[in-house]
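Retro notes, structure queue

What went well: the backlog is down to a handful. What didn't: a couple of records were mislabeled last round, so from now on we paste the full input next to the output in the thread. Example, using fructose-bisphosphatase from Capsaspora owczarzaki:
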Amino acid sequence: MSQFNVDTNLITLTRHMIHEQKQHPNAKGDFTLVLASIQLGCKFVTSLVRRAGIAKLNGTAGTADTNASGETQKKLDVLADEIFINALASSGKVAVMVSEEQEKAIVYEDGRGPYIVVFDPLDGSSNIDAGVSIGTIFGVYQLHDGEKPSEEAALRPGRELVCGGYCMYGSSTNLVLSFGNGVHGYTLDPTLGEFVLTHENIRIPSRGKIYSINEGNSIYWEKQTSQWVNGVKNPEKGKSPYSLRYIGSMVADIHRTLLYGGVFLYPGDSKSPKGKLRVLYEVFPMSFLIEAAGGRASNGKHSALDIVPKSIHERSPVFLGSKEDIEDIEKLA
Ligand code: P6P
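Corresponding output:
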């Protein structure tokens, strides 16, 4: 009901979660606690990102440290990592955490659980100082009954995720997530401190008009990538070329792909045969979302969700987006 143009019946993420939970009779509410801690992390990081320039939180952490992927840590990388580790630990329901910023998995053997959370606390952080949208990417698995928490327990195919999502710190703060059957977007209302449902049941167009790739790597591309990109840049007579949009921050490029359609590509090439993006906490959550929205996620040959990672920081080539475009790419393998 809304009088005087005020919606007094807001659907917040928590309320939507409780509604969704009623659809799963065996859901015990444990996950609601995990999601509440993820929301807290996203709100906390939002406040830091918004104040970064003023609070002198831009720039590198200043230590010689690099993360597990050998990338120089920014101050906000370190803070975001601590924020999410503390928030998830406080839920009491997370037995294993895998973070891009932590070389090894964080494993609790005090009986807590049953969830495993894989996350990139602040993806795209090289863009922070330029004010470009950055984000947190997360995926949640559930330990099998009786399974002992361990780093190996996180080495699961993406298809086994129970939840995948991201929070984009852009002109507004958008949290997009899925439990596998539908993708919903929530926008942070800073006056309420609540994520409010704003994009219900996001569906990605079956074919797009945008391709998103770092063309600076084109001299290293394999034939499959070169052929497809050249095909959309120089289409057959009567068809329009695709537009190139590349922000260089995966969360922002995927958010646009979800809403507008098209293809995001980070392929393997002669310089980096496995590509750059990490399977557990970048490729899987984004693939989970894209396929739940009716798109397709591929490693160039088969669904990216069927990859079985052998290590927690493993990388994979990835092609994500409109189903028909991705199928065209796979035909060129
Ligand atoms: P490149 C950001 O550093 C990131 O991990 C992703 O967010 C982004 O998609 C990719 O790397 C950009 O990589 O090599 O094009 O700068």
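Agreed that this is the format going forward. Reviewer comment attached to the example: The domain at 13-199 is CATH 3.30.540.10 (Fructose-1,6-Bisphosphatase; Chain A, domain 1).
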